Prior knowledge:
Helix content is 24%, strand content 34%. By secondary structure, it is an alpha+beta fold.
Amino acid sequence: MVLFVCLLENSxxxxxxxxxxxxxxxxxxxxxxxxxxxxxxxxxxxxxxxRYFLDSAGQPDLYKISQTLKQNGLLKxxxxxxxxxxxxxxxxxxxxxxxxxxxxxxxxxxxxxxLLKESVLNEQQxxxxxxxxxxxxxxxxxxxxxxxxxxxxxxNIERSHIYQWNYIITNTTFQYPKAxxxxxxxxxxxxxxxxxYWYQIDKGxxxxxxxxxxxxxxxxxxxxDKNLNILEIISNQKSSQAFQKEIPKGAMFVKITDTxxxxxxKNGLDxxxx
Length: 274
């Protein structure tokens, strides 16, 4: 860390006060050297309580740092006009799972169209670059919040330019916030306008599913393991009001909908884990 700080100091005008701690370094990574230099006195006041911005391991807390910068108007993310945004992500654990999660999150944040510009998979990590045409950079504070919901932690964020960012991410314990955790022998009722339902089913051996309003539908069930790899797909071609299915070994999650028209089940399903 000392070496990194020294390198950053060399890039700042000699008259600028020396960066003396890792908090300053992380702030400069998030803002860019020039923006840090312009607002350095204000930044030093904001982060004067160094302990508050350290996590339980004594390392800079990226979420608290980025949140403070955002709340005080220092984290500028808007472009003057639409342009290409490049974001590099590096992750060690389960690259397929992470990309699925990330794409879901980006869609929720309003980024619907992006390209995989480059990817490298080796024994150490999966690294890939996403490119998108947009008017604003991804909010690092909001992205951290959403990744946390899935069990991911951002280890480092570096901003090369307002349109070039780099994230290093790790997974602690994967969780899927879309999935309702079912309790055995208790019926769960959910309604969803899209007619798509996710459940966590690791504690049972069989599912009983029926439409809440008694309509006929064509049950479709997709079973996933703990890393969201597909284990089994059931697509019924015959309509029914209720359906039962043994849970395949290793299944952690299930997605339930209608085979032909998901909104058929928008009024709800009653699901019981046995």
